[in-house]
Amino acid sequence: MRTALLCLALAGAQIEAQTAAAPALLSANQLMPGLREAKAKLGDRLSVAGE
Amino acid sequence: MVLTGTLIDASGSRPVRITWQNGNLFRLEELGGAQRVLLFDGTKLRNTQGTVGDDERRMIDSLIAALPETIFWQSASHSVALRFLGGRFRATEDTSADYAGPFSDVYSLMPGAPAAQAVFGSAGEDLVWIDSDALLIAQVTHTDNGRHIATQLTNWTAQGAQWYPASITRLEDGQQTLAFQVTGFQVNSASGITLFQN
Q: In terms of pTM, does the model score above 0.95?
């Protein structure tokens, strides 16, 4: 638990540093690479017009 | 997107069909057993066989709210607040250098809008765990009255360029309370709104 909390604190500090240093849109992209990749694995089914 | 398969929970085993459509519309049909049909047309959640109680809420929570489609749709439509908590978390407190995995990237997802709360069931926080190496959603977790609820998405299967979880399992404080084995996956053209109303 202590390790996880430390990791969480470090990650939070890193996020704050990135957010402060980069424009909002760029920092959002930097923060969520895994999420974007995970969506890409779904193929185009979330992107089909009208579906 | 249509998932068909077998649902096993306290009510027994029966075939179920889930239709999910962009806009976060869904139709969850029991094709056996009580033959409930749970519907959400974007604004109203209903059960054709009665009220939406704990059993129905449990089904919606794990079979709809935890679907990758719902997660991504909610995050893209800004009806939830999404926050990156950190990358490559270990599953245990194993701090050894040769720890082989799994590792997870964890996101906090906080439903805010009423429509999102209708699907997610509460205004509480969900954690979305993405496998850091496979880059697929591994589980979605939250706490409910002090109980740890986890919906695990496993046996990810590719059909063409489209991946889907072939097994969805719900654990409440570590005890399995629901399992859905997917036997069919289809991506179809959009249906009319009435499919999600009646």
A: no
Q: Do residue B190 and residue A51 have CB atoms under 8 angstroms apart?
A: yes
Is A49 a member of any domain? no
| Nearest beta carbon to residue B136 from set A8, A12, A38 | A38
Instruction: Write out the residue range of the structural domain in which residue A29 sits.
Output: 2-40
- The CA-based angle A15-A17-A19, given to 5 degrees, is 65
CB contact, 8 Å: A24 with chain B? no
Is A8 part of the contact surface with chain B (CB cutoff 8 Å)? Answer: yes
Reported ipTM: 0.79
Contact assignment for B163 to A8 by CB distance below 8 Å = no
Domain count, chain A: 1
CB-based contact, B81 to chain A, within 8 Å: no
pLDDT tens per residue across span B10-63? 999 999 999 999 888 999 999 998 899 999 998 888 999 999 888 998 999 999
Report domain extents, chain B: 2-196
CATH for the stretch B2-196:
2.50.20
Q: What are phi and psi of B3, to 5 degrees?
A: -110, 130
